[in-house]
Amino acid sequence: GSSVIAFSRSESAIRQSINDTIFSLNEFKTEIDRLTYIDVDGEANGPLAMETAATLLKSNFKKLAVEPLKGFGSDLIYLSQLGIKTSSSGDYYLDEATFTKTLANNPEYFAALKDTNVSSNSSSATITKSQFTTVPPDTYAVTLDGAQWKLGTTNLTQENLATGGSRFTSVTYPGLVIETTERIPADFDVYIGKSFAQKIIDLMTDTLDLESSVKSAEEAYKTLTLDIEARLEKLDIREKLISDRYTEQFGSMEQVMTQFNSTKSLLENFVDSWNQNK
User: Fold this and answer.
1) Neighbouring C-alpha atoms within 13 Å toward the C-beta of 215
2) What is the Cα–Cα distance from 258 to 264, expressed in whole angstroms?
3) What is the DSSP letter of 77?
4) What's the rounded Cα separation, in Å, for the pair 112 and 117?
5) Which of 33, 66, 125, 238 could form a disulfide with 120 if both were Cys (CB 3.0 to 4.6 A apart)?
6) pTM for the structure as a whole
């Protein structure tokens, strides 16, 4: 007989994901703020104050929290819609009212925190993507432009399937496969979404990349440290040479002064003796 299957998301699991996200954001923010702190009234600057690479990393991190998450349907998703907001001091916190409202009206939005998305608004289309294929997150329209199928502005190659449907692939995005049950489907949208967690991971990966600005700054500091150490070593050698030279000169001067004192005493005794014999 007929049946109804209902799906619902666990509020406790979603809330835990939100709290974990807020904790991680605040933890990183606190550390990057400490490192780049500028003390306008004194000399208690952070160790990376005015460091260009660290300032850029701080800026890119802030952008992630305000940029929309694309590719999770026709709507853009913002962290503020999920209840993740910032206080006047810049710290992240959970807005309970917004969280509850979104959970009731758009619970699917919360998937954008941790889950990637490869889907379509067409029930007749199946989308698969290799984990090694990088497609910028966005909404892409699959259309037939004359005789050329397109994914957004990217050309697609169409292949007839024995089942009567079509398979679409792209040279630009190898590993992305779109299959439809119709040979010539009507226009539809493909959603490619990157989770907020993955965006954070990508930021950290890029930061640690050998060609990143942060890595270049680190290498520059290493080179500078080695150069300073070499200079200090030369200064130590120079200090020892100068110290030895002045020690030798002091010894010679001391000998001269001793001789002068001896001569002075001899002359004084001679004069005293001369005066007594007069």
Assistant:
1) 9
2) 10
3) B
4) 8
5) 125
6) 0.71
In whole angstroms, what is the distance from residue 86 CA to residue 92 CA?
4
Q: Is 177 left (phi over 0), alpha (psi -120 to 50) or beta?
A: beta
Euclidean distance between CA atoms 270 and 278, whole angstroms: 13
Q: On the CB side of 154, how many CA atoms lie within 13 Å of its CA?
A: 17
| pLDDT tens digits in sequence order for the chain, 278 residues long | 899 887 777 888 999 999 999 999 999 899 888 888 888 777 778 777 777 888 888 888 999 889 999 999 999 999 999 999 999 989 999 999 999 999 999 999 999 999 999 999 999 999 999 989 999 999 999 999 999 999 999 999 999 999 999 999 999 999 999 999 999 999 999 999 999 999 998 888 887 776 666 666 667 667 777 777 878 888 888 888 888 877 777 777 777 777 777 777 777 777 777 777 66
d(CA 233, CA 42): 32
Q: Please name the residues in contact with 20: beta carbons below 8 A apart, sequence gap of 6 or more.
A: none
Query: CA 87, CA 98: separation in Å to the nearest integer?
Result: 15
